[in-house]
């Protein structure tokens, strides 16, 4: 396995996704997580993918079309904090990447609505489901969002939620922080 954050998170998440599941990519970006989820939910599953940037939705759409997976996804150009407006089913897996779109405008980042979006995800997650947060911090995105998210996660009821924070312990320069939130049964 390649130990890039995306591959690491996908390796863990694939244990939870079954044919027919509902999943959410809260930050579609360039479509990598959306494509992964579409492959895993199979022909009877569905993936909702959110992004505020038109370019991100276009890249995701193109990627899914090339992989013949378009029918499995609903692409929504809106903020992930509004996911409960669009998704009425419980989701098995929800993925977030906090920061900015790779190759995109670094001034457009997820900062403003992060905690509201996580709350929405918690409300939509089915028992036994998992939320993956990949938190990118540092120069362009700052540390405020990372600290706000981690402080918020500390307040979650430990009888209902299990929060696991991973780290690249021997990497420099603010490596991404993979976090998993499990909804206990």
What does this protein structure show overall?
With 185 residues, the protein is α/β, with parallel strands linked by helices. It is built from six helices and seven strands, in the order H-E-H-E-H-E-H-E-H-E-H-E-E. It has a seven-stranded mixed β-sheet, sandwiched between helices. Helix 2 (32-41) links the parallel strand 1 (22-25) and strand 2 (46-51). The longest helix is centred in the first third of the chain and has 13 residues, at 54-66. It is globular and about 40 Å long. It starts with a helix and ends with a strand. Residues 101-106 have low confidence and may be disordered.
In short:
This protein has 185 residues and is of the alpha/beta class.
Keywords:
7-stranded mixed beta sheet; 185 residues; 25% strand; 6 helices
């Amino acid at each position: 396995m390649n130990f890039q954050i995306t591959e690491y998170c996908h390796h863990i998440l694939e244990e939870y996704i079954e044919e027919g599941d509902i999943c959410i990519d809260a930050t579609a970006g360039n479509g990598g997580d959306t494509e992964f989820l579409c492959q895993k939910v199979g022909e009877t599953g569905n993936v909702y993918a959110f992004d505020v940037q038109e370019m991100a939705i276009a890249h995701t759409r193109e990627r899914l079309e090339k992989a013949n997976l378009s029918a499995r996804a609903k692409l929504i150009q809106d903020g992930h904090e509004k996911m409960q407006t669009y998704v009425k089913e419980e989701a098995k897996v929800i993925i977030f990447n906090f920061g900015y779109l790779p190759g995109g405008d670094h001034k457009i980042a997820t900062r403003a609505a992060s905690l509201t979006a996580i709350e929405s995800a918690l409300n939509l997650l089915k028992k036994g489901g998992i939320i993956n947060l990949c938190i990118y911090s540092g120069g362009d995105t700052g540390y405020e969002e990372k600290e706000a998210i981690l402080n918020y996660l500390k307040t979650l009821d430990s009888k209902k939620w299990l929060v696991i924070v991973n780290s690249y312990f021997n990497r420099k320069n603010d490596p991404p922080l993979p976090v998993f939130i499990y909804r206990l049964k």
